[in-house]
Design brief:
2 domains, alpha+beta, hydrolase, Fumarylacetoacetate hydrolase, domain 2, Fumarylacetoacetase_C_sf, FAA hydrolase family protein, 19 strands, Fumarylacetoacetase-like_C
């Protein structure tokens, strides 16, 4: 299923994409009007916390809507909604893996920088924004605003000290993250946090796709375009550390919770990697497409 969170009529809602339509099922409205006695989560995060049972609950909602006399009442056209990140506020900071694609490591440094262990940093949860949202240019703070297209994992159940062989059992699904970065702040402060955590610099979405629809997450193309110019053209097959390794390592001594988001790293082609660098400026449009998920689109605003 392709889940999404969105705003409609000034309310934060969630649903799933209607097949072969540019619209979403309004699960909250279906619940309240058609099956009020069913236990249906009010937000997508609550749904993730309920586990894979969410899919069966949603199927019941869709059946009820399709059998009603007013099917269109329970759909929201994409033109009429405001996209939110699938998880608008994660339980903890967005966890990110750096230097997880060899070619990206080389464009930013040299062979000696290829890691032997996970490079982990975080983005503040207040940096999260949705598809089609404007990303502030922050011209007063940086002149090196950069993009990073990434596959992100959304955790589906609580776990600690998770063995690699069981790691995928803890995944709810997958989404796209643009790890927007102020490179100069990243260098100035040595630690990545400030350069990675400016408000609205973690676009996420447009969908959260349940893991049953992506059985081979290490075989997905990742393409980033800036103003329709292809900048990144990679594949998750080229990860240095697998999703299983990432989840297992992060969970050693630290509890992972439903709704936690892990960005798994970016392939080569970031702005800083060009000579001269190609940093983002006002009016630029960034599109990140990940096979099986969709395209995350954002523009650089004021």
């Amino acid at each position: 299923m392709k889940f999404l969170s969105f705003r409609f009529e000034d309310k934060l809602l969630y649903g799933v994409k209607v097949k072969r339509e540019e619209a979403a099922w309004n699960i909250v409205r279906i619940h309240k009007e058609l099956i009020p006695n069913e236990n249906v989560p009010e937000t997508l995060l609550e749904g993730i916390q309920s586990g894979m049972e969410l899919q069966e609950t949603v199927r019941k909602c869709i059946r009820a809507a399709e059998e009603s006399d007013h099917v269109s009442r329970y759909k929201v056209k994409f033109d009429d909604l405001v996209w939110e990140a699938p998880v608008p506020r994660t339980p903890k900071n967005v966890m990110c893996i750096g230097k997880n694609y060899r070619d990206h490591v080389l464009e930013m440094g040299s062979e000696k920088d290829i890691p032997e262990e996970l490079v982990v940093f975080t983005k503040a949860s207040t940096s999260i924004t949705g598809d089609n949202a404007l990303i502030p240019s922050y011209e007063e703070l940086t002149d090196q605003l950069d993009y990073e297209g990434e596959l992100a994992v959304v955790i589906g159940k609580r776990g600690k000290n998770i063995p690699e062989k069981q790691a995928i059992d803890y995944v709810f699904g997958y989404t796209i993250v643009n790890d927007v970065t102020a490179r100069d702040l990243q260098s100035k402060h040595k630690q990545f946090f400030l350069g990675k955590s400016l408000d609205e610099t973690c676009p996420m979405g447009p969908y959260l796709v349940s893991k049953d629809e992506i059985p081979h997450p290490h075989q997905l193309s990742i393409v980033t375009k800036v103003n329709d110019e292809i900048r990144q053209d990679g594949n998750t097959a080229d990860m240095i550390f697998s999703i299983e390794k990432i989840i297992s390592t992060l969970s050693k001594g630290m509890t992972l919770e439903p709704g936690d988001v892990i960005a798994t790293g970016t392939p080569a082609g970031v702005g800083k990697g060009f000579n001269p660098p190609k940093f983002l400026k006002k009016g630029d449009q960034v599109k990140i497409s990940v096979q099986g998920i969709g395209t995350l689109t954002n523009e650089i605003g004021e």
